[in-house]
Amino acid sequence: MSAHKATAWGYLPVIDAESAPFWAGAQRHKFLFRHCNHCGRNHFYPRHACPACWSDNCEWRAAAGTGRVFSYTVIHQNDNLPFRDVLPYIVALIDLSEGIRVTTNIVECTPETVHVGMPVEVVYEAITDTVTLPQFRPALRAAS
Q1: Given this model, what pLDDT does residue 13 score?
Q2: Does residue 143 lie in a domain region?
Q3: Is 144 a domain residue?
């Protein structure tokens, strides 16, 4: 995505022309990704051209919002607000059902219960009037 700007909440993404549809989707509780109509591949993070074939014949699609933990780490130290108030927290790589990998937080889960392969589903947290963060939690139903 783009650079981040500091706010009272912490560091938030800067919404630019390339990522604006993603953030608008997140506000509507839709996790959007790009699909290349030329080679048929899905990709994330939002960008104009397909990273596989460089075609600009891409469109936005909505993900099912389910996946599995590919890898994770537990953060035990972070002196920056608001992170120091939520220690420890989990940062993970998630393989979405659509074949794309995203970096995100795992919420509603303890460090002792998170594991590689764990099914997860997207949840949304409205941070400001313009920024809603998609995050993931253990799935209430199994991911495909």
Answers
A1: 83
A2: no
A3: no
Contact partners, residue 12, CB within 8 Å, separation at least 6: 4, 5, 127, 128, 131
Token pair belonging to 113:
């219960």
Distances (CA, A) of 25 to 20, 62, 107: 9, 8, 20
The C-alpha atoms of residue 47 and residue 94 are separated, in whole angstroms, by 19
Which pLDDT does position 3 carry in this prediction? 45
Q: How many helices and strands in the chain, by DSSP H and E?
A: 1, 10
Report the mean per-residue pLDDT for the chain.
Answer: 89
3-state secondary structure of 132: strand
Q: Is residue 8 in some structural domain? A: yes
The 10s digit of each residue's pLDDT in 8-52 is 456 788 889 999 999 999 999 999 999 999 999 999 988 889 999
CA distance 78 to 127: 19
Joined together, the tokens standing for residue 76 give: 């035990």
> Which residues are paired to 5 by β-bridges?
12
Q: Is residue 111 part of a domain?
A: yes
Number of domains in the chain: 1
Q: What residues make up the domain containing 88?
A: 4-138
